[in-house]
Design a protein that fits this description.
Layout: H1 3-103, H2 106-109, H3 112-127
């Protein structure tokens, strides 16, 4: 091998090493950028996970509140039924009293309102024994 061939091979090797060094530098920079992106993705994923966890907790709380509301509505519905029954009974007694007063019989036997009140009082006394 002549000096010129050796010199060409050495120049080629040096040139290749320079290209490899540049390529390695570019790969290192790309790797650093990839690491930075991965770190941002991890932060985003963690934030999303925390958000979903909060949403799940809120859904559980809403479900519990809905159950409580349903129970309260059922209680109120029953109370409303009792109120309606009592109001209808009162209206009936009142209408009977008005009807009897209009027909002129109210003064003879007492009013239905008075009789109903007396009957309820007697029933309460009997139930208390």
């Amino acid at each position: 091998m002549t000096d010129e061939e050796r010199s060409k091979k050495m120049d080629f090797i040096i040139e290749q090493q320079a290209k490899f060094a540049v390529d390695i530098q570019m790969l290192q920079e790309a790797h650093a950028q990839g690491e930075k992106r991965m770190s941002e993705i991890e932060k985003g994923f963690l934030g999303l996970f925390n958000l979903l966890s909060d949403v799940a907790k809120a859904q559980q709380e809403n479900a519990r509140a809905q159950q409580e509301n349903a129970a309260q509505i059922a209680i109120l519905t029953e109370a409303q039924k009792r109120t309606d029954e009592r109001l209808n009974a009162f209206i009936f007694v009142l209408e009977q009293d008005i009807s009897q007063r209009q027909s002129g019989r109210a003064g003879k036997r007492g009013t239905p309102l008075k009789r109903a009140t007396t009957k309820k009082g007697a029933a309460k006394k009997n139930n208390g024994r």
